[in-house]
Amino acid sequence: MRLAALCVTLAAALSLTFVAVRPPSPAPADAPASAFSAQRAFSDVVVMAKSPHPVGSPANAQVRDFLLARMTALGLAPEVQPAFALRKIARLQQPLFVGGQVENIVGVLPGRDRTAPALAIMAHYDSVPGSPGAGDDAAGVAAALELARILRLQGTPARDVIFLITDGEEAGLLGADAAFTQMPLARRVGFLINMEARGGGGLAQMFQTGARNAGTVEVLRHNASRPSASSLAVLLYSAMPNDTDFTVSRAAGIDGLNFAFIGRQFDYHAASATPAALQLSSLQHMGDQVTAAARALAYAPRLPERGPDQVFSHVFGDLIIAYPPLAGWLVLAACTGLLALAVRNARRLGILDAPGVARGVGAAIYLLLLTAAVLHLARLIGTEGGGFLEQRPLLARVATWEAALLLLGLSVALLTPRLTGAGRGRLVAAALGLAAAAAAQFFGWDLAALALGGAAAVCGGLTFGAPVRIAPAWTGVLATALAVSLGLQIAAPTAAFLVAWPLLAACLLAALTSLGGTGSSWRIPLLGVLIGTPTTAWLLGYAHGVFLGLDLPALLAVFGWLCLLGLWPMIQGDPGDKIGDRRVWLAAAAALALGLGLSALVRLAPPWSARHPQATIVQHLQDAGGGKGSTLSTEPRLSTWTRKVLAQGGARPVQTRDELVARAPFWASPAPTVPLAGATVALQTTQNGRQRLTVTVPAGIQGLSLDLRSDTLAGSATVNGRPAALLAAPGVWNRIRLQAPPGTLAVEFTPAGPGRLEVRTLSRTEGWPKGLPPLPARSPQEMAFGDSDTALVRDARTFSW
């Protein structure tokens, strides 16, 4: 009966998860005028995402003009605000600045009180080179236009609503930086909602807030429509190296909400990010979320007040549970009380023993280690390397890849409780850990696999042996979760709910069943289904989000462990149930074999198609003045098409390294040179004793890398008049990466004395150079990616003063 209940629970949980992670159906173009319609917004996406439109390109200027016309028609009186932006990337040790010339678009829906802090709606209209950017971020801009129509129809808001459509986000958040450091209008903003995307589908997730977010969370809790939001996402994103325009506004002290959908990541920054590939239901979900929040804020008498960061999470439907971090101790107290009650009842029944509890703790640790080792092995089997380009075969078959990981996690989850209850599993447990570690080494030396698999083998050898009854084993598993939850409550209270909530449900089940030792044959199956189904579905929804957001399959082991908190007594089963035991072993073996087989399928069977074409990258590189030329590719493993290009004329591609061109080694082969103009540099001493490096950028240059190294300490550096902490340490390369560079760039500094300045430039032109053999046509199963099909001109100069 318990095995049947387990099957019902898993099937129902998977069904609930499938429904929960699906965005709502898109509203048609004839939907009520007061409602957000993805179909109406999509018509703007079609226009903006006709072709790639990176900052500074003619195509981007066309999108700018279209937006000016649309915003004028909506009564927003838009203005173009040009600026030169320059930002330092603070997380890198070596000085790195990004910059460029941007053109933000600002429109205002006037409110009743023009002096009140304004609400800002932000999205960016530029794309990366080579991508039409239908999801990132034409969808966000289109949603902003549809929202403007809705708010205008509803009537005059209580405060101004500023529509800030930024430029140059993809080049380093340049438009947002210009808006919040140079433009006076942005200083009026009291609350900001940003829209982004990392792909072309999936639920719109609210993943970042301003600091001290108590008031912001209340707005979200009372107005969200089928939200996907949690304090865990806010905490994780704060530790990640990713940035959006919201990073800039948040740093400026502005409260807000940051939304993005992250499904269909194959289309992220790719030529396949066309309007046809955009999931309209994701646009609908984004629009529903932002419209609900913006309506509440635009017409509210006051904006939300700051307060301590809240613990919060979506549950099901429109429900968000939120409470102060201190209330997390009450959740832990409830878990402790229920577990103590369950332990007391189990002791009265005489089914609890200390060695069994210790083995239960070991089983929980073994489960985590072995699941992580197996999932890590699957990543190695699935594709080579850990970068974004290496991940693309997985993204092309993302459903198959997720199914493989789910099956592998299920196999270990089925195996561990049975090993605990059956005894005599020491050799099996150790062998599985060692096999996972050894198999990983076939793909190259992997210390992580050795550590995970080896630790699992040791843990299994120490844990499994004598049979353990359900009550002590389950007690050990729950006690482990209680200890982890306590640690999180102390160290990261806004993330503790992820363990505490499923633990609370599992402890309730344990108390109601006297820790699995109840004499009623129906109680554990029935209560297990009623409590385990929603808990498992909620956890699987989180696991799906982590799967999409992080290319770290081993991390998903945490969710397998959390799911098992409530499913343990149904999997370990009744003592002496040999038929059920055999079935679980067979199911675990089948899930393991099928999961590994699907992982191998992703690697061995080419996934490329017209919908998911293979990324190809080629560029021409030559030294200034017609020096050495080469054809290069930054593909980790050369595609057939790219290898053909690099082998033209009988050339043989080899790997080389040039940190000015790429951070990692790249492939290159000799190529002829053609007339190409790159940036030129000159140094002069000004009347006040400062040094001025003038960089002249010819027309047609879309990107410029400028590296500077001085052997003398310098101070008071500026770039086109903007202060920049350059040349503060002698002998260190300082890097400036510009997209849409201005025609003239002036770098000024005051040296401490006589010295020498080394200058390296890399200019990127638009399009494949004339005079070179044309690139062969790509098949429908191949696409240009990123800066492909462009030319690079490299130069180096040394100046003295």
Q: Can you tell me about this structure?
A:
- With 801 residues, the protein is α+β, with helices and mostly antiparallel strands.
- It is built from 21 helices and 24 strands.
- The strands form four sheets. It has a 15-stranded mixed sheet that branches. A five-stranded antiparallel sheet has the order 15-16-21-18-19, with no helix packed on it.
- Helix 4 (134-154) links the parallel strand 3 and strand 4.
- Helix 11 (354-382) runs parallel beside helix 20 (578-604).
- 55% of the residues are buried.
Q: What's the main sheet like?
A: 15 strands, mixed
- Roughly how many Å is the radius of gyration? 29 Å
**How is the quaternary structure best described?**
single chain
Q: Based on helices, strands and strand pairing, what is the structural class?
A: alpha+beta
The rough form would be described as: globular
Q: What percentage of amino acids are in beta strands?
A: 15-25%
Alpha-carbon distance between the two ends:
87 Å
Mean pLDDT: 94
Helix fraction by DSSP (H/I, runs of at least 4): 40-55%
* Number of DSSP helical runs: 21
Number of strands: 24
Taking pLDDT < 50 over at least 5 consecutive residues as the criterion, the unreliable ranges are: none
Write the layout of secondary structure elements.
Blueprint: H1 2-20, H2 38-48, H3 58-73, E1 79-88, E2 96-109, E3 118-124, H4 134-154, E4 161-166, H5 174-182, E5 189-197, E6 201-209, H6 214-223, H7 231-239, H8 245-251, E7 255-263, H9 280-298, E8 311-314, E9 320-323, H10 328-349, H11 354-382, H12 388-396, H13 398-422, H14 426-440, H15 447-463, H16 470-491, H17 497-512, H18 523-549, H19 557-572, H20 578-604, E10 614-616, E11 619-623, E12 629-633, H21 640-646, E13 654-656, E14 666-670, E15 680-685, E16 691-696, E17 701-710, E18 714-719, E19 722-723, E20 734-739, E21 744-751, E22 756-765, E23 782-784, E24 790-800
Parallel strand pairs: 2-20, 3-4, 3-5, 5-7, 10-23, 11-24
Antiparallel strand pairs: 1-2, 2-4, 6-7, 8-9, 11-12, 12-14, 13-14, 15-16, 16-21, 17-20, 17-22, 18-19, 18-21, 22-24
Helix pairs in contact: 1-18, 1-19, 2-4, 2-9, 4-9, 5-8, 10-16, 10-17, 11-13, 11-14, 11-15, 11-16, 11-19, 11-20, 12-13, 13-19, 13-20, 14-15, 16-17, 16-19, 17-18, 17-19, 18-19
